[in-house]
Amino acid sequence: MNIQRNIKKVMERISEAAYRSGRQPDDIILVAVTKSVNPNNVISAINTGIEHIGENRVQEFLKKEGVIPEGVKRHFIGRLQTNKVKYIIDKVDLIHSLDRLDLAREIDKRAANVDRIMPVLVQVNIAREATKAGVMKEKLYEFIESLTPFTHIKVKGLMTIAPFSENGKDIRRYFAEMKELYQKLANKKYPNVEMEYLSMGMTNDYEVAIEEGANMVRIGRAIFGERY
Ligand SMILES: *Cc1c(COP(=O)(O)O)cnc(C)c1O
């Protein structure tokens, strides 16, 4: 496994997908997903130009975050239990997985305590999978409107995890639907919503996701190998 080479390859593919979708490579943010990756390899990735890291478990994030250099952005991408919000509220730059009101209430309260406005993405269960978290698309507006009272939350976009697929075709329409939802929300002028990030695309599907409008991809295995 060669992290440097993997990152280079991923960055090239991101660039090509960006051009195919009429954008520049710089328009796409690469979040390197470092779950189960040892700190040395995380540092190696950062030294190779990774500026964003993503973790999906609170415990693991807390163990590792001490070694992450300042300036590297930290993303929380996993399912977030309400009682764990307090541990990460002052340590992450973006939470990708807001999907329910009680979590919003807790994030708002804890963010107020540390005097910050917490940037979040609303997770959408675009393929209506029973095993996945996320708001159903027909509830999305209602959910986002219900966040209006939370003045310490800023909705910065949407996130989704596409169904597993061997061929890109089946999932392309889900990504396209996400882009449409994202665009529609950007056009509404909700007070604490400022659409900036569409987080979708992982090792198996990031090129399709970018072609359909993702501007933030979360990639683990293509960088750190299958064994993580
Ligand atoms: C693990 C994970 C990823 C990265 O998946 P890979 O297939 O390793 O690229 C992205 N997003 C979330 C939410 C994850 O848990």
What does this structure look like?
It is a single chain. The chain has 228 residues and is an alpha/beta fold. The protein has a single domain (3-204, 211-224), classed as Alpha-Beta Barrel (TIM Barrel). Helices cover 39% and strands 18% of the residues. It has nine helices and eight strands. Strands 7-6-5-4-3-2-1-8 form an eight-stranded parallel sheet. The radius of gyration is 17 Å and the shape is globular. The chain starts with a helix and ends with a helix. 39% of the residues are buried. Bound molecules: pyridoxal-5'-phosphate (PLP). The site of pyridoxal-5'-phosphate has 14 residues, from strand 8 and helix 9.
Notable traits:
39% helix, alpha/beta, globular, binds pyridoxal-5'-phosphate, single chain, TIM Barrel, 9 helices, 228 residues
